Amino acid sequence: MKAVQGPQHRVAILGFPRTGTNYLASSLGSLPDVTFHTEPFNPSGVHLAHGSRNALKAERDADPLAFLGRLERECATPILGIKLLPNHAPQVRRRIINDPGWRCIVLFRPNFLAVHSSQLTATRTGVWAQSGNAAPVQAPLLHFEPKRFLSARESFRQFYDEVLNG
Predict the structure, then answer these.
(1) Closest listed residue to residue 140, CA positions, set 155, 165, 123
(2) pLDDT tens digit string along 40-67?
(3) Are 76 and 122 in contact (CB under 8 A)?
(4) Among 44, 144, 162, 164, which has the highest number of CB atoms less than 10 A from its own CB?
């Protein structure tokens, strides 16, 4: 009997930055039957379950849907997971949302001001995730910029409109 290639189950975490996507992806990725690619479609690099593989960036960027197929074919566990943020391959996001073979977990933090200030803090400090052993980061003083806030709020709204309405 021929072994089945690829995962039996596929799950995608869809969310805006600073909504808990890192924590959930890390938690799921720690399970033994799960291969969870943290950010395979991040424009700055290819972040897979077992580290960054930036040598794959050209292949991924040339055909993101084919690269998704490669991740599926090469998955050696029963469950494959990926995380997708707003700037991660919109065509892949649309495919996953519309494919009944994928289950989507949508993380939403309703207080956009908290999302925005957390994003500004992470950008300014360079600390995107806090581990239990790390010393707490002193939150910097942030200045409210209405145009930047409104632009980010519109991106937030558009992302969730697309995710929730297909």
Answers:
(1) 123
(2) 999 999 999 988 898 999 999 999 999 9
(3) no
(4) 162
